[in-house]
Write a structure and sequence with these properties.
alpha+beta, elongated, about 20% strand, about 35% helix, four-stranded antiparallel sheet, Creatine Amidinohydrolase, Creatine Amidinohydrolase, Chain A, domain 1, six-stranded mixed sheet
């Protein structure tokens, strides 16, 4: 085998999904087992968003949709039913309990935008019961909801835009190509919404009114606890993020721009198989470290300042979240060192308390008490914990006791405004956040990002060869 062929095989193995189709089938089965006979679940992937002119933003599937399918193409809908249902798909009648609506093969379109799985290949490739052309979705909705008591959907609705209207509007992205012109599409959506309302009003006397619930009510408890395979993917994302942070630390210096550190991070991500960042990187130097979600990343850094880097690689759809704060020129000042060590102590105290049954409120309290005791309580701006997984702020209900298999961050911070008169001048304008990722185990917790330099001495050692 040639070196090039071997390299292609290695890169392909990095970029292909590491979760087998049977994992997604088991997840769908877990939902099907929870659905009553008159329950229906409709999970729509997110639409493609136009960036400008004829360019689209890079597509990423909806997290709930991907969790149940492992399918990465746009214009797709998953339908799960508590009992067998039938509907017409063109001249064919389709029956079953699980259906994936997706785009049909189209050689001409695929020449421009890439290969599609197609209807014929989807059942075997994705282990899905039935695959249906997405162009039949809008016409099948009424039959899918027929005799249903409850519809679970991953859509947002309000009194002003009821569920049926939201569902009708969402089908805009699934209209057949001939009807995608804006004016025709608008008429089609209005007609579909009216049709669904008439259907609802025409339900027979005594039939329960169709109720609507969020799909997340059933999906999110499953997503909360990570499987061993998911934990492995998150650990891989952490290792990739570590490489990016180390590269940035070594590149940092007087006169370097924030976006140059971002370039070092993103090169390391993609070079190691992460398709994208899990969120827009935060590279805040000097005064920008005090802006929690700063991401302009266009300032020229100065010696003597700190730079706060909040970054996370997304690997195989799973995102991590890690923050390191370090001196631009590789050496902490005494004031910076003091503030940094208070934040580090708060994180360590909160991490030491991690165990099954603890709540986010407990962790927040422990970290906060540490910072308050050190005299910096007035400079706390946020809580210290959130869950991670398919989303950087992953699903989970506040106050729920943490269970083994939960993966979370602990991220205390101190942010001292430049005009804070309650501290000496040398402390003003200092912003420090330290964030690490942890896995709850039956015995306690594992510090998954422990190998990333974190203490003052570790960070200065990494950066010292460049000084």
């Amino acid at each position: 085998m040639s070196r090039l062929a071997a390299l292609i095989i290695v890169l392909s193995s990095l970029l292909q999904s590491q979760l087998p189709p049977d994992d997604f089938r088991q997840r769908r089965q877990a939902i099907l087992d929870r659905l009553g006979p008159a329950d229906r679940m409709l999970v729509l992937t997110r639409p493609v968003f136009i960036r400008n002119s004829d360019q689209d933003h890079p597509f990423r599937p909806d997290s709930d949709f991907w969790y149940l399918t492992g399918f990465w193409e746009p214009r797709a809908v998953l339908v799960l039913s508590g009992s067998e249902i039938s509907f017409s798909a063109g001249e064919e009648t389709v029956s079953g309990r699980e259906f994936l609506f997706l785009r049909e093969k189209d050689p001409r379109a695929e020449t421009w935008t890439g290969r599609r799985v197609g209807v014929a290949a989807a059942p075997a490739r994705l282990l899905i019961e039935q695959a249906v052309d997405i162009n039949h979705f809008s016409g099948a909705i009424e039959a899918i909801l027929q005799d249903a008591d409850t519809a679970y959907m991953n859509l947002s609705w309000s009194d002003a835009a009821p569920p049926l209207d939201a569902l009708a509007e969402a089908t805009l992205q699934y209209l057949p190509p001939a009807e995608e012109r804006p004016r025709g599409a608008f008429r089609r959506v209005r007609a579909l919404a009216a049709k669904l309302r008439r259907y609802r009003e025409a339900l027979k006397a005594g039939t329960p009114q169709l109720a609507y619930r969020q799909a997340g009510d059933l999906i999110h408890p499953l997503r909360l606890i990570k499987s061993p395979a998911e934990i492995e993917l998150l650990q891989k994302a952490i290792d990739i993020t570590a490489a990016g942070l180390l590269a940035a630390m070594r590149r940092s210096g007087h006169g370097v721009y924030e976006y140059q550190l971002q370039a070092s991070v993103e090169f390391a991500f993609k070079d190691r198989g992460a398709k994208r960042s899990g969120y827009e990187p935060i590279i805040g130097s000097g005064p920008n470290a005090l802006i929690l979600h700063y991401n302009e990343n266009d300032r020229r850094m100065q010696a003597g300042e700190l730079v706060l880097m909040d970054v996370g690689a997304e690997y195989q759809m799973y995102t991590v979240d890690i923050t390191r704060t370090f001196p631009v020129n590789g050496r902490f000042s005494e004031a910076q060192r003091e503030v940094y060590n208070v934040v580090l102590k708060a994180q360590a105290a909160a991490a030491a308390a991690l165990k099954p049954g603890i709540t986010d409120a407990d962790i927040n309290r422990i970290a906060r008490e540490t910072i308050v005791e050190a005299g910096y309580g007035e400079f706390i701006l946020h809580g210290v914990i959130h869950l991670i997984g398919l989303d950087v702020h992953d699903v989970g209900v506040r106050g729920t006791p943490l269970a083994p298999g939960t993966v979370l961050t602990i991220e205390p911070g101190i942010y001292i405004p430049a005009d804070a008169e309650s501290v000496p001048v040398e402390y003003r304008g200092i912003g420090v956040r330290i964030e690490d990722d942890y896995l709850i185990t039956p015995e306690g917790a594992i510090h998954m990002s422990r190998d990333i330099p974190r203490t003052v001495s570790q960070i200065e050692a990494v950066m010292s060869p460049q000084r």
